[in-house]
Amino acid sequence: MTDRSLRVARTAAGLLLTLSAIALSGCTAFATNYAVLNRDAEAADTVPDGVVEQDSGDVADLSSARLVGEHSGSSIWLLRGVEPSTVCVLAYRDEDEWGMGCGGERGPVEMSGPAGHFTTVPDDYPTPDGATRISDNVYALSP
Questions:
Q1: pLDDT for 104-136, tens place per residue?
Q2: 70: pLDDT strictly greater than 50
């Protein structure tokens, strides 16, 4: 190799390393997070038996449920979806009035049903217009 071709090879290798570092850091820089899903589960996080009995388990990971609050008589949980990069919100008033909605974790994910109208957003996401805060990640919306 000549000095010139060695210099070109070193420059190309350096450029490749720099681009790789930027690409890899970009993957984490824009990762979404729901801090509540990272905390240890507590007894209150267990979803009601009525949901377990009726849920097929093919959409949400019920073991990942975290109770985030209540609104107008409905208890609200945030859960991880079964599919990678999905999140779910579960609103439960009773065995006959509950619903769950799932979608991409970059949000927002909305669900509406007899137990209420709710939306989820990742940490540090702007508050949805006209929404009532239930937790850092879940908001009630007006019907």
A1: 988 789 999 889 999 999 998 888 889 999 999
A2: yes
C-alpha–C-alpha distance, residues 133 and 39, integer Å: 20
Contact 114, 132 (CB under 8 A): no
Which tokens sit at 10? 């070193």
The three state secondary structure string of the chain is CCHHHHHHHHHHHHHHHHHHHHHHHHHHHCCCCCHHHHCCCCHHHCCCHHHHHHCCCCCEEEEEEEEEEEECCEEEEEEEECCCCEEEEEEEEECCEEEEEEEECCCCEEEEECCEEEEECCCCCCCCCCCEECCCCEEECCC
The pLDDT tens digits of the residues spanning 32-55 come to: 689 999 999 999 999 998 888 887
